[in-house]
């Protein structure tokens, strides 16, 4: 005998089955055996969904197109801003030069009272001429900082030293440098002050932070103390001169042609021209001797001197390798000083000594200078005897003076 609950369950099942059958055969309802007209609510709903889908696709395409146009416009505006910044920078540089010219070309002034007269330490600046090399001029606007740039002259023969040079420049935080194969005064003509650098120089600080900029030329010295670097009164004696026994002379050790800062002045440009012309006309001339002669010799019958103002750099800040390996490495107090740059100009084993400088000053390896020197002294002696032999036989093709190698027997 069936209970009331079982009857209810059976009725529900039958109702569900009948509903499914009617839904299959009459999807639009029992009273609409055919699809409803377009005015029916069901039809309007389907059309609305389809229409929204189509409009959504079109809207997304329009949005993408709009974003693309905005990106192109933004890129164009950024380009215009960059060009305007470049023009503004050039205008500010021109303004600075104009003000400098105005000061120098102003009305003549009366001299100050005796004891207070001060002359100008540098010559009048010249206006740049970017037409001499427009391509380089464009590069320099991106590289130079404050119209100043380090220029190193190098080729494939010094690749290893150049790689070390670049590493040290970057480590010292120097952004304004350029490696070129030019040897003329084009940089000065373009309006840039140049720090000319040999490739055998180790930079430990930014040299532009330690320049005076008060002379036509600031140059590193090959001297090793106050007398040899900055000049001294050298007295010689001639016994047959009687009362006039002593003769006073002024002496100064050579300026280094491998490291000097040159300003944008006529004497500075003329110095570069003179040195370049003489080296072209005299293939066997030593560039350092020519550089010193043109910079230091006065006018005399048959010759017109240059008259460029010059400043000798602090030899403890801008250090040559004689000072470092003969003096500094033996002095515990001087070893605490950190130079701006070290020029390995007194030694032939340049790359190894450059590495020693880095080991000592950058990585604080205390015995780097002593160990390197003891290892290299035998090589130096080999070069000395080789140089001595070729001098005796008149077969030398080197331009390095004998004194560079003779030094090591006294270190």
TrEMBL record:
GO terms for biological process: root hair cell development. Residues 60-101 form a coiled coil. The chain crosses the membrane at residues 12-31. Keywords: Coiled coil, Membrane, Transmembrane, Transmembrane helix. Residues 187-354 form the Nucleotide-diphospho-sugar transferase domain. It comes from the Eukaryota. GO terms for molecular function: glycosyltransferase activity. This is Nucleotide-diphospho-sugar transferase domain-containing protein. It comes from Solanum pinnatisectum. The lineage of its organism: Eukaryota, Viridiplantae, Streptophyta, Embryophyta, Tracheophyta.
